[in-house]
Each structure stands twice: as C-alpha cells, then as structure tokens.
Amino acid sequence: MVIFVDTSALYALMDADDQNHERARVAWAEWLDGPVQLATSNYVLLESIALIQHRLAYEQRVSFRRS
C-alpha cells in the first residue's frame, strides 16, 4: 500500500502542540514499521518547510530537513 503524506500530516508530526500530533506520531511509527510505502511531492516538502519555518523554531525546521 502507498500512503501519500501531505503538509498537514508532516506539520502535526513536528508540532507537539498540534491537535493531531499524537495521532500523527502513532501513525508515522506504524507506517515505518509496516509494509507501506510513503510518498509525497516536492511541493508538499517545500510547503511543509515554509510552514514549519513560519510557525515553529529553527531547530525543528533543521530536524525536519534532515529527516
């Protein structure tokens, strides 16, 4: 199965204060351990970086880019 990861999922994963953070964290862990492929696009990555940069701290933006 292929799961398309969008900006809202990536942002919720990075922001511990997001209302969907725990749900995103659990899903992410399951996806990484399961037989699924994660897919996204360059547009989603750019949008995610911009959103994280605007709303969160520098350290989280760097962490996102490295992961």
Q: Could you please describe the fold and organization of this structure?
A:
- The longest helix is centred in the last third of the chain and has 14 residues, at 42-55.
- A two-stranded parallel sheet has the order 1-2.
- The model has no long low-confidence stretch (mean pLDDT 88).
- The chain has one domain.
- Helix 1 (7-14) packs across helix 2 (21-33) and helix 1 packs parallel to helix 3 (42-55).
- The chain starts with a strand and ends with a helix.
- The chain is built from four helices and two strands.
- With 67 residues, the protein is mainly α.
Helix content: 55-70%
Strands, total number: 2
The rounded Rg comes to: 12 Å
Total tally of structural domains: 1
**Major sheet details:** 2 strands, parallel
Question: Gap between N and C termini, in Å?
Answer: 22 Å
Oligomer: single chain
Widest sheet, order of strands: 1-2
The low-confidence parts are none
Q: What is the N-to-C succession of helices and strands?
A: EHHEHH
Q: Write down the overall geometry.
A: globular
- The overall pLDDT, averaged over residues, is 88
The helix-and-strand class reads mainly alpha
How many helical stretches? 4
